[in-house]
Write a structure and sequence with these properties.
Layout (H helix, E strand, L loop, with lengths): L9 E7 L2 E7 L9 H14 L6 E7 L4 E8 L7 E6 L5 E5 L3 E6 L5 E7 L7 E8 L3 E8 L14 E4 L12 H26 L8 H24 L3 H8 L5 H13 L3 H32 L9 H15 L13 H22 L6 H12 L7 H9 L17 H7 L1
Antiparallel strand pairs: 1-2, 2-3, 3-4, 5-6, 6-7, 7-8, 9-10, 10-11
Helix pairs in contact: 2-3, 3-4, 3-5, 5-6
Length: about 425
């Protein structure tokens, strides 16, 4: 898919999923005339025990087309690169001819940690590197002076424990100190991976159990180291170790441990460290809550009722456009009433003209009965409305009048 020119002679290459690691010489290439001098220099170097070979590694991400890592590849002076590849977790590893295995981590901006040395093992054996697990080295044991296994019989794989090549242990237990350093390195890598997955929007819940198990194992190792320091009268070192505990339960266990060892002053110090940690955690949670509340958007649910009404009014006023209202003149109520009356009478006359009046005998009889009916003292207004032919279903618009006072008429006459 891709063709890349490298800036040095290729030594080896290895791949893992979508990653490709390449090791090259960091020095410039020599001309053909200088090859004899180079061979003489290599013979001198092998006699003096120092190495002049400088190697460089590059890590390519084929999927994204990037180069996330690049740097010098450290090897033991006077040795050569014997094996280069990835661990089962995808970490870069290198193994040189002196029997030193190095593991690349992202700590300190990217560093190589020596996690195995053949000098700490049997001196009459060589180890043919095959692979690397979490805490185990997979190799084939070869008797000196052989450096590689025989094909027949079939070689047997051997698991070797990883350990930092420490000169001495100031804690009195080299195995516990090695376990502490290995757990710290693996825990840092898991936390870094979880952070990268969270930033990428991926689900990192599968790594939560691994991180918690490593934290618990690390706390157990630290508690054993604290007990070793207390027994060897290294109380200052024990105080430094208790600050590295991750869980509150482990802190309380350390207080019980020093109390059982009859060290009340140290128990008081541990109790003060625990109280300070709890206070800092509460303070940190309050600060985070304040930050979240300050940056949270203001919604209508968080506002009181009065402020809701004010904001709604303000939004209505701001949303209404500024339009020029037309001018209307006031009309007289009497003129409007007269116009309404004329309109209604015109509508009634039109409806009466549309009806057939010629052939209906019942309507003539009703008209005769109305003419022959005796005059009603209060029916003058009703007869007027019947003459105009108003509909009975419609309500009467004329208000009834009360009878006049007979005494008032006689007095006037």
């Amino acid at each position: 898919r891709h063709v890349i020119s490298l800036d040095g002679l290729v030594v080896t290459a290895s791949g893992f999923k979508d990653k490709l690691a390449v090791v090259t010489h960091a020095t410039d290439c020599l001309s053909s005339n200088d090859q004899v001098g180079l061979a003489f220099m290599e013979s001198v170097v092998s006699d003096t025990g120092t190495s002049s070979v400088v190697l460089e590694f590059k890590l390519f991400n084929i999927t994204h087309g990037t180069q996330p890592l690049r740097g010098r590849l450290p090897i033991t002076p006077g040795s050569s690169l014997s094996w280069f590849g990835f661990s089962e977790e995808g970490q870069l590893c290198s193994y040189d001819s002196k029997g030193v295995l190095r593991l690349y981590t992202s700590q300190f901006g990217g560093s190589w940690f020596p996690v195995f040395s053949a000098f700490k093992e049997k001196t009459d054996e060589n180890y043919w590197m095959v692979g690397l697990q979490t805490n185990k080295l997979v190799c084939v044991v070869c008797k000196k002076p052989e450096f590689f296994p025989q094909v027949v019989p079939k070689p047997i794989l051997t698991l070797m424990n990883l350990a930092f090549p420490l000169a001495t242990s100031d804690l009195g237990s080299e195995a516990l100190e090695n376990e502490f350093m290995m757990n710290s390195m693996h825990l840092f890598e898991i936390q870094k991976k979880m952070e990268e997955m969270d930033n990428a929007g991926l689900d990192a819940s599968l790594l939560d159990d691994d991180a918690f198990n490593l934290e618990a194992a690390q706390d157990r190792c630290i508690l054993r180291l604290i007990a070793s320091c207390c027994n060897s009268d290294k109380l200052v070192r024990a105080t430094e170790l208790v600050k590295l505990l991750s869980l509150e339960k482990s802190m309380k266990g350390a207080i019980k441990l020093v109390t059982a060892l009859k060290l009340p002053n140290l128990a008081e110090k541990f109790n003060g460290i625990l109280e300070e940690r709890l206070y800092n955690e509460v303070k940190k949670t309050k600060e985070t809550n304040l930050k979240e509340n300050s940056f949270a958007p203001v919604t209508s649910d968080t506002l009181p009722s009065g402020s809701k009404a004010e904001t709604s009014k303000a939004s209505i006023i701001s949303s209404s456009p500024n339009l020029s209202a037309p001018l209307f003149t006031k009309k007289n109520k009497t003129q409007e009433a007269a116009k309404d009356g004329t309109n209604k009478t015109a509508e009634v006359d039109g409806s009466m003209k549309a009806k057939q009046t010629g052939g209906d005998e019942t309507s003539d009889k009703k008209g005769k009965e109305e003419v022959q009916a005796p005059p009603h003292p209060h029916g003058s207004s009703i007869k007027l409305t019947n003459k105009h032919g108003t509909n009975k279903s419609e309500p009467s618009l004329v208000t009834p009048t009360r009878p006049s006072n007979p005494f008032l008429k006689s007095a006037i006459k």
